[in-house]
Structure formats: C-alpha cells, structure tokens
Write a structure and sequence with these properties.
4 domains, single chain, 27% helix, three-stranded mixed beta sheet, six-stranded antiparallel beta sheet, alpha+beta
C-alpha cells in the first residue's frame, strides 16, 4: 500500500523470506553432501550469509522495480517518470505580497522591474516583477513584489513590516506591504509531485476539465497544498487554493494562480476564470481525558501527546477542501493512546450547536476548528484488571 494512492496494492517481483531461503539452502546442501548442517557446523554460518545476501538482493530488486511506478517512485526516478507527460518538479518558490507605493505630486513616472524594498529585519529583500507606469497625478498604486530568495524565509512579514526602499525613486513618499508575505516554499516534495504527474494528462485539453485547472493552479507554486475547482454558472470557473501552512493565499499568490490558468499562458476555452478564497466552516472543540490511575505519573505526557495529535489533525483538515468535520475521528486520536481510560470530545459549530455526528463541508469550503480547552483527570480505574 502507498499513502499516495492507498487503494493501489504494492507489487512484489520476488518474495523476501530469509527463513525459507535458509531452509532451502540447507536442504540442498544435505542433498549434495548427505549431511544436514547443524547450528554449530561451520557450513551453517556460510549458508546463513548466502541467505542474508540473497534476501538483501531480493529487497533491492523489489525496491528498484517499484521505482518505475508512480505510486512508489522517489527523487530522480520520479523526475524521470514526470518526463513522460512533460511534467517537471516545481522549484522552490518565492514569497509574495502586495506593496502600496505612495507619491507626492508628479508628472508621471515608472516603477521599474526589479525595484527593491527591504523588510524590518534589514536582510530580506523583495522586488517588483514588472515595470509599472504611474500616470501623472496618480498618488498611490499597488504592485506585486516577490522575495529575491526562494524558500520559506520570505514568509510571515506582517502588513507594514516591509517599508524601506533600497534606492530612491522620483516623488516616492512611502512604501509598505499591505498583506502578510506568503507563498515561499522549498522544492516540491515527492508526494505532491506524484499527484501532479497523475493529473497532468488533463493539461493536454488546455484547461477544459476541472483537473486541468487544478493541474495548472498547482503548478503555479510549490507552496500550494490543495486546490478545488467548481463552476458557479456556465462558462464560469472558480478556483480556490490553500497553502502548505493552512493559510489562504494573498492577492499576489492569487494573481500568480490566475496567470497560470488564464489566457496569458493558457486558452481557457471561453471560460471566465476567478481565483477565490475557500469559505471557512468554523467550529470550536473541547476535549477531556480520563486516565487510568496506574498511569497517573504519565498523565501530563499523555495529555500533551493527545493534544498534539488532535491539533495536527485539525491543521491537516484546514488544508483540505470539502473535508467534513467528524468529531469522532478527533476523539479516537486520543482514545488510542496507552493509558487513556476514556476520551471525551465536544465540537460545536459557529452557532454553538454541538456536532453529534458529522458536519458536511462542500468543495468550496474548508473546516477551521479552534481548540478551546484540553483537560484531564485521573480515575480510580486501573489498566490491569485483577481477579480475586
């Protein structure tokens, strides 16, 4: 089984079974010599070595054979599979944001491509992506900028934290970012790349099917975790993306996605393409653990582990379009931990109504659950029952 495609069985060219191979070698040795090698015989050591190396080779054969298959290929092997559909791994992406340039009176000017501004750390530099013509009398414009270095280091600068121009510009009074910087990510990982290869045949239709739009949207940046596409009306396409960290893309990232899915680079078959935010289906959650008395000394550690597991699940859910809210799925993450007698969880929707079973989330939405409390108590029950 593979986490990329869970329903695909894992193939094996040869069976790896050390005990069976060793028994076969001993039987063949006995057949040829008339002596069955015992545990203290020197021949046994050599036969065990042969069986071990044989199974190492079998495991390598199985591994290398799976490297030719999309569900299992890794690194350079996966890159080569991508070539079959002209799909290349996305490089590390650069953080983006929108800058507001404010001017005094002027007769017209140009903000040149590559004009740089620096963040409050005095290290991280962003630059404009193209020439921007500012007409006479225009005192403010918004311009997309991109970090000059790829990776996550350009993420997380809050509005107002990029406010210093590297070089002077005619009539410029102030410059500041209006959105938090985001979109910086490392090189595309194997699982994300494999999924893009899987849907890549849809691109040959030139953005017709949903999967074609999904492919092009995902291809715009390695910072994108999930994409959803739907049609609100005939010939209208709406695209929603969620980033790796669970945040929604800022306007600069939306513009990047739209450029990948529009007439600038694709022919969208007459479709009107919009990039929109996923709607948040908000909920709050509270959990209470009852811990066996003989695990009392580990109670705080158990609580910490359970809380971390549930928070990780909620963070994963918020990166998924259409992921229904299932309280039992969260509670079970705590219940399965050794030492937990009973895990209780309460999840309420935005109106304060307890979600008893599930709450449906559409492909236009994503679940956003806030953890309000996480408590525990030690009960008198022991994990080991004794009978007198």
């Amino acid at each position: 089984m593979t986490k990329r495609f869970p329903n695909i069985p894992e193939p094996k060219l040869v069976e790896v079974d050390y005990d069976a191979d060793l028994a076969s070698l001993k039987a063949r040795y006995q057949e040829g010599t008339g002596h069955y090698p015992g545990i203290n015989d020197p021949e046994t050591f050599h036969l065990e070595q042969i069986a071990y190396e044989k199974n190492e080779l079998k495991a390598l054969i199985n591994y290398e054979s799976k490297q030719n298959l999309l569900p299992f290929a890794e690194d350079e092997r996966l890159d080569n599979i991508g070539l079959l559909t002209e799909t290349e791994r996305l490089p590390a992406s650069k953080a983006r944001t929108v800058m507001a340039f404010n001017f005094s009176l002027h007769t017209g000017l140009v903000i040149p491509q590559g004009y740089q501004v620096i963040a409050v750390d005095n290290q991280t530099i962003f630059e404009t992506l193209e020439d921007t013509v500012v007409s006479a009398g225009t005192l403010a414009v918004s311009v997309n900028v991109e970090c000059i270095e790829a990776g996550i280091q350009g993420n997380g600068f809050l509005p107002g934290q990029i406010n210093q121009a590297v070089e002077p510009l005619t009539a410029l009074e102030s410059v500041t970012n209006t959105e938090t910087t985001q979109g910086g990510a490392e090189i595309e990982d194997n699982d994300a790349f494999a999924y893009r290869i899987y849907i890549s045949p849809s691109k040959f239709s030139v953005a017709g099917p949903y999967e074609a739009y999904e492919y092009f949207a995902r291809s715009s940046s390695s910072s994108i975790k999930n994409v959803s596409v739907w049609t609100p009306a005939p010939n209208e396409i709406e695209i929603s993306a969620i980033l790796q960290d669970g945040s929604l893309p800022n306007q600069a990232i939306k513009d990047l996605i739209k450029s990948e899915c529009s007439g600038k680079k694709r022919v969208p078959m007459g479709d009107l393409v919009r990039v929109v935010d996923a709607e948040d289906v908000t909920a709050t959650a509270s959990f209470h653990l009852q811990i066996f008395s003989d695990y009392a000394s580990l109670a705080e550690s158990i609580q910490s582990t359970a809380k971390a597991n549930i928070e990780a699940a909620m963070n994963a859910w918020k990166t998924q379009h259409g992921r229904d809210i299932v309280p039992a799925a969260l509670t079970s993450l705590a219940q399965r931990i050794e030492g937990v007698y009973l895990a209780k969880g309460t999840v309420k929707d935005s109106e304060g109504t307890v979600i008893t079973d599930t709450k449906s989330v559409t492909k236009k939405q994503r679940p956003l659950i806030t953890l309000e409390s996480f408590t525990f108590e030690v009960v008198t029950e022991n994990s080991q029952q004794t009978f007198e």
